Amino acid sequence: MATTTTTTLTKLALSLTLVHAVCASRQILQAAGASSICAGVSQYIIAPSYVYPNCSITTPSCAWYSFSNGADYVIINPNSGPGTTANSDYVNLVSDIRASTETFITTILGYVATTYGAKSEAAVNAETDLYNSVYKVDGIFFDEASTDCTLTSYYSNIVTHFRAGRVYVTNDDLPNPYDTAPTPFTSYWEAEVEKAAASC
């Protein structure tokens, strides 16, 4: 368990390092006139921001400060989903993001695991409803999606139920950059950060 926790924290730290690099690059672009440099660009950065918001998005040492300055889309995940009641820290986080005039975040998604189709439609819909009513998210990030074609109607129904906003579906069978990165892991990402910095 300790090894798993350490590995997870290492991955988080490295992902935040990359977000910091993006933040720095964007600040450089802003200073140079990003509106003209980035004209027509349609790529966005989405961050699996599964970090508890126990600090302000304006505090540099806070993980959410990095997300706020480096990501266009963020995914909130209060309790492996929305939980059963509103979490005031997440409510405040969403409010702070909405009120900020300096954040890059344009879209807030709520995390919902479909357990590869094993979670009932009613249960999934209850979670998306809670995200919609309590956190006012812009869309839903459906995780643990099944590749079973017989479940097409299941996914069609839960997507239809969440009518407002955007919907994203991912599948854990797809390559995870953390899992497929060459070893040693740390030096790989350090090289990626250096390449990103050099491109500026």
From TrEMBL:
It comes from the Eukaryota. Residues 1-24 form the signal peptide. The keyword Signal applies. Keywords: Signal. InterPro entries: Spherulin4. Pfam families: Spherulin4 (PF12138). This is Spherulation-specific family 4. It comes from Marchantia polymorpha subsp. ruderalis.
